[in-house]
Write a structure and sequence with these properties.
With 195 residues, the protein is α+β, with helices and mostly antiparallel strands. It contains five helices and ten strands, in the order E-E-E-E-H-H-E-E-H-E-E-H-E-E-H. The radius of gyration is 17 Å and the shape is globular. The two termini are 33 Å apart. The chain binds zinc ion (ZN).
C-alpha cells in the first residue's frame, strides 16, 4: 500500500516523525574536564508519529481481531505508523533527516554524530572535546534532561523548530515515563494522572 505522506519524508529508516520538533539546551558539568558545557536533546510534540508505539497489546489485539502471532507481525511491520497523543524525548538517535541535521549544525553544534558510537548523535564537551555519555543526561531525575520540578525544568532552553522531523531513535521516552513529566510540562504539555 502506498503511503501518501512518504514524499515529504527523506529518511527511509525513520521510526519517529513529526510536523515540528524541539531542540532542548541545558548545561552539564563535564566529568572529564570539570567545566560546564552546553548539551542538547531532541523532543517531539503531541501527535507525533512513531512505529514504536508502546500500546496496550491485549486491548489492541482484540480490537483488531488478530491472533497473537499476526498481531506481532502487524505491530512490528515497518510501515505501521501510529499517531502518539503525547510528547516524547528522543535519545540514542541513530539518524535524522538532512534538514534536521542542518538545523542541529546551526543551533546545537555540540550535538553531532560520533564515529566511535556507530554515528549515533552525541553531545561533545566544548572544552575538552570528549563525548558526553547519554546516561549522564537523560534517564535519572536531577540530570539535565530529566528535571525534577518546574524550577529545574525552567533552566532548560527550548527552541521550537517549525519544520518536519524525521529520525531514528533507539530510545523514545514517552509520557509513560512519569519522571519526564516536568520536562514535558516545560514544553507546554500537562501530563495528568487520568489514564
Ligand atoms: Zn570536558
Amino acid at each position: 500500500m502506498q503511503d501518501d505522506t512518504s514524499a515529504r519524508h527523506d529518511l527511509p529508516d525513520a521510526n519517529v516523525r513529526a510536523s515540528s520538533y524541539y531542540v532542548l539546551q541545558a548545561q552539564h558539568l563535564c566529568k572529564h574536564c570539570q567545566q560546564t558545557t552546553l548539551v542538547f536533546a531532541l523532543a517531539v510534540p503531541p501527535n507525533h508519529e512513531s512505529t514504536e508505539a508502546d500500546i496496550d497489546l491485549d486491548e489492541d489485539a482484540s480490537r483488531l481481531g488478530l491472533a497473537p502471532g499476526e498481531f506481532h507481525d502487524w505491530l512490528f511491520s515497518p510501515e505501521q505508523w501510529q499517531t502518539i497523543p503525547g510528547p516524547a524525548l528522543l535519545t540514542q538517535i541513530g539518524s535524522v533527516s538532512a534538514p534536521v541535521a542542518l538545523t542541529l549544525q546551526r543551533l546545537a553544534s555540540a550535538l553531532r554524530q560520533d564515529a566511535a558510537q556507530g554515528a549515533q548523535w552525541t553531545n561533545f564537551c566544548e572544552h575538552c572535546g570528549n563525548a558526553v555519555w547519554e546516561g549522564a543526561l537523560y534517564p535519572t531525575p536531577g540530570q539535565p534532561f530529566c528535571p525534577e520540578d518546574d524550577a529545574t525544568a525552567a533552566q532548560i532552553t527550548v527552541h521550537t523548530i517549525d519544520a518536519p522531523f524525521d529520525g531514528y531513535a533507539r530510545m523514545i521516552w514517552t509520557d509513560r515515563y512519569r519522571n519526564k513529566w516536568p520536562l514535558f510540562k516545560r514544553l507546554g504539555v500537562a501530563c495528568s494522572e487520568a489514564d
